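User: Can you predict the 3D structure of DUF177 domain-containing protein? Sequence below.
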Amino acid sequence: MDHRAPLVFDTRELGRRPGALKRITRSVAAPEGLGIEVIGVPQGAPLELDLRLESVMEGVLVTGTARAPLAGECVRCLEPLAQEAEAEFQELFSYPDAGDWTRTAEPGDDAEDEERLFLEDDLFDLEPVLRDAVVLSLPLQPVCREDCPGLCPECGVRLADDPEHHHDTAVDIRWAALRDFDPADHKKTPRTRGDDPQEK
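Assistant: Sure. Here are the predicted structure tokens for DUF177 domain-containing protein:
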């Protein structure tokens, strides 16, 4: 683990004294891929972190808040939008030698053990925790405004720019020939005996 990486933090000042605290404020450039398809934190955007590191018996408990600008597009009208993200998180980074005795004291399933995060040489990498927290805080259907009317389904014009926009009632192409149909011109001619092919 590279201690010079912007999202790697050192816990040596805490020692292993349960209850020891350390607060960290750091501004870093956002890593790549911090978002979903329609909205996310632009790579390199300022990511503001407020962290609280607390030494506990099993390791270091990290509690924090991340704030960053968001860029995306409205899912209704496709206009660019800018918002602010704020994500809270809490994660325990266990001491490397804490796994055995905690597992003996409280047996857990293998899946839970595999998901545990560990300190490496008193360092921890916050990026995976931060990525999960930010992505889960993002709106799945971001809109430029709550009452955005979206786009016209026929011509694609942005309805917010033209509130009076409308089209004549569309006619299903399968029934277009019936628009000019005049029942008076298509009176049914009565059949006479012998016209029905089934009677022959």
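The chain has a mean pLDDT of 83. The beta strands are 8-10, 21-29, 34-35, 39-41, 46-55, 59-73, 80-94, 117-118, 123-125.
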